[in-house]
Write a structure and sequence with these properties.
Elements lengths: L2 H28 L16 H5 L23 H5 L6 E7 L2 H12 L6 H14 L6 E4 L4 H7 L3 H13 L2 E2 L4 E3 L12 H8 L3 E3 L8 E9 L3 H12 L4 E9 L2
Parallel strand pairs: 1-7, 2-3, 2-6, 6-7
Antiparallel strand pairs: 4-5
Helix pairs in contact: 5-7, 8-9
The protein binds zinc ion (2 copies).
Length: 247
């Protein structure tokens, strides 16, 4: 009885797929994909640049994820235990990794998000990190209005798909009082700047583990302030993954 509508749906789906292929082909003709690292035409990251990506390798501080020869808690984490259990990043924030993040963030190259997300997803597996839900670090509302999107939310959505995890893109909000982190590099200044800068605007997270997702981790102060708001909402554990890390 239902075979006719099912066949119609299948045909419609096939047509949508073909239209998408044609649109992709047309876009590739008029706006050819260029490697973010070297500009070579063909893909957003050519095989040479991909082979040369600056992976962040251990030993790392088990909490903040900074390279640490001893592999034990670094001096900063020993003094400031913070709200976050572990931060891990795929790359050092340099070279092609830096350019890829820059293109995603400032030049509207949202098409590179699945590539970066696949690296985050692999890092998550390799680090043995798990969580009940994924939450992107929110942008300042004024920045998101200007940019039209939150790059962390796009990354979280893609990682969520790969790991089949629930993503809550709007549950963590900026309280709207902090100044831009770009202007302050000193860790103490950044901690002061983001203290109380986030609030949880969704149902309580009682007993859950939350994974924060962001593009870049500079000092970890922003992630820690996010974790603090999430812990106040009832989460037991908060971990974080970012594409890159300033080291
Ligand atoms: Zn290249
Ligand atoms: Zn540390």
């Amino acid at each position: 009885m239902n075979s006719a509508p099912a066949a119609t749906r299948a045909r419609t789906f096939a047509v949508v797929i073909r239209v998408r292929d044609v649109v992709d082909l047309a876009l590739d003709c008029f706006f050819p994909r260029a490697c973010v690292g070297c500009g070579r035409i063909g893909s957003y990251m050519c095989s040479c640049c991909e082979a040369d990506l600056p992976f962040l390798v251990g030993p790392l501080c088990p909490r903040c994820g900074q390279p640490q020869i001893s592999g034990i808690l670094c001096a900063s984490c020993a003094v400031h235990p913070g709200s976050i259990e572990a931060i891990r990043s795929v790359f050092r924030f340099e070279g092609t990794a830096r350019r890829a993040v820059h293109e995603l963030k400032y030049h509207n190259l949202r098409a590179i998000a699945p590539t970066l997300a696949s690296y985050i997803a692999t890092c998550m597996t390799e680090a043995g990190m798990t969580a009940d839900v994924m939450v992107p670090v929110p942008l300042h509302p004024s920045h998101e209005r200007l940019r039209g999107y939150n790059q962390a939310a796009i990354l979280a959505r893609e990682v969520g798909k790969l790991h089949n995890m629930r993503v809550l893109p709007r549950s963590l909000r900026r309280a709207g009082t902090s100044t831009s982190q770009v202007r302050t590099k000193n860790v103490e200044e950044r901690r002061r700047n983001v203290r109380g800068a986030f609030r949880w605007a969704d149902s309580p997270l009682l007993g859950s583990t939350v994974m924060l997702i962001d593009d870049v981790c500079t000092t970890g102060a922003t992630l820690d302030a996010c974790a603090s708001a999430i812990r106040e909402a009832g989460a037991t554990r908060v971990v974080a993954l970012t594409v890159a890390r300033e080291v």
